[in-house]
Amino acid sequence: MQITRNMTVGEVLKLNPKTADVFRAMGMHCLGCPSATAETVAGAARTHGIDETELLTRLNSAGFGEASDEAKALAQPKGAVLQRDKKTYAIVPHIPGGITNPATLRKIADVAEKYGAEVIKVTSAQRLAIVGLKHEDVEKAWHDLGMDPGHAVGLCVRSVKICPATTFCKRGQQDAVGLGLELDKKYHGMELPGKFKMAVSGCQNSCSEPAVRDIGIMGTSKGYVVMVGGNAGIKPRLGDRIADQLEPDQVLELVDKIINWYKGNARHNERLGELIDRVGLDTFKQAVLGPEAATTVAPNRGI
């Protein structure tokens, strides 16, 4: 099979592991990085200042086989993120909704202490990252934890951020915990064209920041509001409010339609908001809400 410029680095490595030596020889030393392997060959060449034609020629000329031991050594351990020092790793056990118990906290602390972790970091995604593990300790740490990795990087659905809502908070107007955990269970880690974030808040205080998530769900006294296309980052965008006064089952049905439409229409590495801006909000709304969706004069963003 011919390797093309639009194939991802991960697809190329899977097709022929020996191409890892080509990438390595041309100065691409982050073969195990989820973000790097999700790049296209063209994008990787551009990022590393490599001639794309030369890279493709060498990739297609590589004999089929296994990667060398030197190239294999560059691969990051499964479920780990290389740190700034380029020597140690962080692992992020998945804690759905940031809700856990004392036994799990003790286990995380024990593993961090056993393998000499530098620090335990509370992440913005409501998880605990064990930072500063040696390469040879990552697999052992995961074994001792007995927990699934959180999908903190890569082109997939990241953790679903939720607030305490009616489960714990006196200000909650709708259940964010139950709905958020159901979304997390169904979608967390699902591979998509780009990274995808969701949040559920139980009231309009929006403590989980739904207006800057690809799908943001906000509780009100009359039901749930759904916003789409929000993101923070270098080009922040507030989500477009497309539905309100929804019941939980209606929210779940709409989320499923949105994700399926995004999966079928987005370009590689294109966030939902970018896709909506490209095709138009009316087109998006008609696709997920039906032809009767009201024509939008201007984006109705945020709350």
What do you see in this structure?
The protein is an alpha+beta fold. The protein folds into three domains: 9-74, Orthogonal Bundle (SP0561-like), CATH 1.10.3910; 80-145; 157-289, Sulfite Reductase Hemoprotein, domain 1 (2-Layer Sandwich), CATH 3.30.413.10. It has helices at 9-15, 19-25, 34-37, 41-48, 52-61, 69-74, 102-114, 135-145, 165-168, 176-187, 248-265, 272-279, 281-289, and strands at residues 80-82, 89-91, 119-122, 128-133, 157-162, 196-201, 215-220, 223-228, 240-246. A hairpin with a 6-residue loop joins strand 1 and strand 2 (89-91). The longest helix is centred in the last third of the chain and has 18 residues, at 248-265. The mean pLDDT is 90.
Name some characteristics of this structure.
303 residues; alpha+beta; SP0561-like; Sulfite Reductase Hemoprotein, domain 1; 3 domains; four-stranded antiparallel beta sheet; 16% strand; DUF1858; ScdA-like_N_sf; heme binding
Task: Please describe the topology of this protein.
Elements: H1 9-15, H2 19-25, H3 34-37, H4 41-48, H5 52-61, H6 69-74, E1 80-82, E2 89-91, H7 102-114, E3 119-122, E4 128-133, H8 135-145, E5 157-162, H9 165-168, H10 176-187, E6 196-201, E7 215-220, E8 223-228, E9 240-246, H11 248-265, H12 272-279, H13 281-289
